Amino acid sequence: MKISNIEFPDKPLFLAPMEDVTDPAFRLLCKRFGVDMVYTEFISADALIRSVKRTEQKLTIYDEERPVAIQLYGREADAMAEAARIAAEACPEFIDLNFGCPVKKVAGKGAGAGLLRDIPKMLQITSEVVKAVNLPVTVKTRLGWDEDSKVIVELAERLQDCGIAALAIHGRTRSQMYKGDADWTLIGEVKNNPRMHIPIIGNGDVTTAERAAECFDRYGVDAVMVGRAAIGRPWVFAEMKQYFQTGEIHPVLTFEEQKNILKEHIIASVRWLDIDDNTAIESVSNQRLKGIIHSRRHLAATPVFKGIPNFKETRIAMLRAENLDELFRIIDSVREPEHSL
Ligand SMILES: Cc1cc2nc3c(=O)[nH]c(=O)nc-3n(C[C@H](O)[C@H](O)[C@H](O)COP(=O)(O)O)c2cc1C
């Protein structure tokens, strides 16, 4: 499978773009566990043009995580084209356009999934961005605005005509937000449309290795994109790859190794958000850190501590811990439940 001139292995797995989640610290960890492609969290075209510092920081890419797509959102073609030119200077492999974000502050203002209500504008933005940069441009969108307007099969052809290099489809409508089950049948229909020739990336509710394999086999997609299942569990990609190769499911990490990865991710987040590479982590281990607050989403979602008896109090303490000394003491104290030994 190739997107533009970038080659991917058989059954490639992509890490879905996720705001406040897919920063370099997390992307690099997923890469270590075999993910084939990563995306930045979505980046506001307007904020990029205004040179907002926090937004510019989101353009940071490390060579070890390539190939990477920088994802942009916005509602005006000229701003999106200008933002794409700025993003291209960070040298990603792809510029990705977000036409799927359902939240009010984005879709309500006509950006993200809001563009599913104004297809001519979506196509204009896509064409302008394709013209503006020398990089391949990809799109991520949903099935349609609501149940009565699932336009993706026709829309995919029109986006392809604008010159995009690949299309990622989240199998929900904007109205569904994140509720209900993702519907992969229309993703399969897009893939099986004989007029489509660009790679199709399927997304939505892929949480297990078996489901990932089924999505390839049943719907024929060129890549499977995984989002929430990777939060607090970046090794999910290694589990999936192992299953593709062997047909068997074995833990790829021991309980202690999983805890160590969580700790490593927390340290990487602190390095990303609080301190530079030359500062010793020990020198801040009793301080309140942004990287710890940022890691809570992963600690709350991780399956590592599932099934541990009487874990509630420890969990609350873990999610309240404000410095590394305290947090790591709690994580270190958790023992693997007997039944899984
Ligand atoms: C916390 C969070 C943040 C997200 N941020 C983005 C984003 O910045 N850009 C985007 O295209 N989709 C975003 N999404 C949607 C995901 O990329 C993905 O389409 C969705 O979660 C469905 O896939 P999943 O079932 O594998 O999680 C976000 C989802 C979550 C849960």
UniProtKB/TrEMBL annotation:
GO MF entries: flavin adenine dinucleotide binding; RNA binding; tRNA dihydrouridine synthase activity
EC number: 1.3.1.-
Enzyme class, spelled out: oxidoreductase
The protein's required cofactors: FMN
Keywords tagged on the record: Flavoprotein, FMN, NADP, Nucleotide-binding, Oxidoreductase, tRNA processing
Active site: 101 (proton donor)
The protein's name: tRNA-dihydrouridine synthase
Organism name: Paludibacter propionicigenes (strain DSM 17365 / JCM 13257 / WB4)
